Amino acid sequence: MAQRLQAVFDRHGPLAARIPEYRERSQQVEMANRVAGAIRDNAVLVCEAGTGTGKTFAYLVPALLSGGKVILSTGTRTLQDQLYHRDLPT
After folding, report:
1. Who has the most CB within 10 Å: 1, 58, 72, 78?
2. Residue 72 pLDDT
3. Domain of 52?
4. 22 phi and psi, to 5 degrees?
């Protein structure tokens, strides 16, 4: 899974092809790997990261690559709409 994640977040990967001015973020890749590990191990993971770290794709990508069902909970309707209309279609 780590290689698949790295390929998605690579500066020449699918996210870079779809997001204008995309840049690789080491913290984003690290968080994605930790999320993937938690999914694999059926474990609980609590992450904290600042604005601009890339949290949304750091949890969405491993969740989607896992092939299982995922439930996402957002703090506001605005974030829910952003996920549904902008981030997931990417």
Report:
1. 58
2. 81
3. 2-87
4. -65, 145
CA nearest 9: which of 29, 35, 31, 36?
Answer: 29
CB 12 within 8 A of CB 39: no
| Predicted confidence (pLDDT) per residue in 13-66, tens digit | 999 999 999 999 999 999 999 999 999 999 999 998 888 889 999 999 999 999
**Is residue 4 over pLDDT 90?**
yes
- Could you tell me if 47 and 55 are in contact, meaning their C-beta atoms sit under 8 angstroms apart? yes
- Per-residue b/e over 27-43, b at no fewer than 16 CB within 10 Å? ebbebbbbbbebbeeee
Output the furthest CA–CA distance in the chain (Å, rounded): 34
